[in-house]
Design a protein that fits this description.
The complex is a heterodimer of chains A (243) and B (219).
Chain A lengths: L1 E10 L2 E11 L4 E5 L6 H8 L7 E6 L2 E2 L6 H8 E4 L11 H11 L5 H14 L15 H14 L4 E5 L7 H16 L3 E5 L3 H7 L2 E6 L2 E7 H6 L4 H13 L1
Parallel strand pairs in A: 3-8, 3-9, 6-7, 7-8
Antiparallel strand pairs in A: 1-2, 1-4, 4-5, 9-10
Helix pairs in contact in A: 3-4, 3-5, 4-5, 5-6
Chain B lengths: L1 H44 L3 H16 L2 H11 L9 H26 L3 H9 L4 H31 L11 H12 L2 H31 L4
The chains are: A alpha/beta (243), B mainly alpha (219).
Chain lengths: 243, 219
């Protein structure tokens, strides 16, 4: 469903993605892990055209991702994104955030979008907060609204860019449990994360990135439980020691 | 004091005719400068080089020429090119264009203060540039631009007196005419000053209320 072939990306002369090839099939949960600066967020942002890449090819359902082409709208309405810093619209309530895309981008009727929006807020456990503004919500609640906003587009896949990194530790669980339930419903997900527990339990596949390349990839239990590369071992040791 | 009140009763009807024109010039040029200012600001943030350059050049040009000269140009020079405007229209257009440069910079500052994450969130749900501006950026930029906008409104009200230089008989000019024919300078100009102040007060309140309404914690 999402295919990346030899993708290269650089900022000026600094190459941050150095030939990245992988694919994500329908219903799969793929976690990208790795040290900061390894290019994991950048590759995620390339998939829905928030960043342009210079070489190679990214295809979403056979459509080439090209940030400058109008086909990008098609890709973005089918591949949603959840951000590290939530990026909710502060001037709109939780419900308005959720129904914004369906009404104004997809042209759904307000009644239909509102009904589904309420259903989605209920699903992320925030029925009572539909009229709250983002500033009145905790970080965990904001991120759950952001997930509901992503779901409201009825996407075929969701990209998560470190969805719990900006949260207080005690709020991480509520967001991860929503993500777990999505995985159980076979939503296609690409998740950049530092939550090794989540990756181990939920991911079908884990990619370890370092220096803009995939160092190691495979089933979650193999990469995390029995890493083959010295760099993966080193990274995991440091991450897990920390916990 | 009694004399002052007697004179005031006599002069106020004449001065009120000036007030009417002052309000007309202010509202007209406020509307024009807001629309044009928004246009220049959007050109500047469009990311299209040529539009950015055009807006930037225009803004600098306007800011570098005194308003009074711009008014003279529109009222006295344009007719030579076959574009004749009434004094009132010339004043509204002149002040509107002159102030659009300042409005543009206010609006641009507001737009650029919006977090990049907002643009990305809008893009990520498939919004194009125009919709992102309309639905996400401008409503938030509006709140940020509101205090300087209020300031600009008050400055425009007072600068509408420059319309007198191209024969618009607004408040300042009416005052000058009355003073010249009665020699009661102190009375007349005190009245003129009070009238300007009285017109400013609703603006102070309006801005205050709007800031309260839109500014408090994004409600």
């Amino acid at each position: 469903m999402i295919e990346l072939k030899d993708v290269h990306k650089s900022y000026g002369t600094l190459e941050v993605i150095k030939g990245f090839t992988t694919s994500v099939s329908k219903g799969e949960v793929v976690c990208l892990i790795g040290p900061s600066g390894s290019g994991k967020s950048t590759i995620l942002r390339c998939i829905n055209g928030l960043e342009v890449y210079q070489k190679g090819e990214i295809n979403v359902e056979g459509q080439r991702v090209d940030a400058g082409h109008k086909s990008i709208t098609y890709i973005r309405t089918h591949v949603s994104m959840v951000f590290q810093r939530f990026n909710l619209f502060p001037h709109r309530t939780a419900l308005e955030n959720v129904i914004e895309g369906p009404i104004f981008v997809k042209g759904e009727s307000r009644a239909e979008a509102t009904e589904r929006g309420r259903h989605l807020l209920n699903r992320v456990g925030l029925s009572a907060k539909e009229n709250a503004y983002p500033t009145q919500l905790s970080g965990g609640q904001q991120q759950r609204v952001a997930i509901a906003r992503a779901l409201a587009m009825q996407p075929k896949a969701i990209l998560f860019d470190e969805p719990t990194s900006a949260l207080d530790p005690e709020l991480v669980g509520e967001v991860l449990s929503v993500m777990r339930s999505l995985a159980e419903e076979e939503m296609t997900m690409v998740v950049v994360t530092h939550e090794m527990g989540f990756a181990r339990d939920v991911a079908d596949r884990v990619l370890f990135l370092d220096g803009g390349v995939i160092v190691e990839e495979g089933a979650a239990k193999d990469v995390l439980g029995n890493p083959q590369h010295a760099r993966t071992q080193d990274f995991l040791r440091r991450v897990i020691d920390h916990v | 004091m009694q004399k002052f009140i007697q004179d005031a009763v006599e002069f106020l009807p004449i001065l009120f005719q000036g007030v009417k024109l002052t309000i007309l010039v202010t509202l007209g040029s406020l509307a024009l400068s807001t629309a044009l200012g928004l246009l220049w600001a959007l050109m500047r943030v469009s990311g299209i080089r040529i539009l950015d350059m055009m807006a930037r050049t225009f803004i600098n040009f306007i800011r570098g020429v005194p308003i009074i000269v711009q008014l003279f140009y529109i009222y006295f020079v344009l007719p030579e090119m076959g574009i004749a405007l009434s004094a009132l229209n010339a004043a509204i257009i002149g002040l509107g264009i002159a102030y659009s440069a300042y409005q543009a910079e206010n609006f641009r500052a507001g737009i650029e203060a919006i977090d990049k994450g907002q643009l990305e969130a809008a893009q990520s749900i498939g919004m194009g540039w125009a919709m992102t501006m309309r639905r996400v950026v401008l409503p938030q930029a509006f709140r940020i631009a509101l205090p300087p906008y209020g300031n600009t409104m008050i400055m425009m009200l007072k600068d509408s007196s420059q319309a007198s230089t191209i024969t618009v008989a607004e408040l300042a000019m009416q005052g000058k005419l009355v003073a010249a024919s009665t020699f009661k300078n102190a009375t007349v100009f005190s009245l003129v000053a009070i009238l300007y102040l009285v017109m400013c007060i609703p603006l102070f309140f309006a801005v205050n209320r709007m800031e309260k309404k839109f500014g408090s914690g994004h409600k």
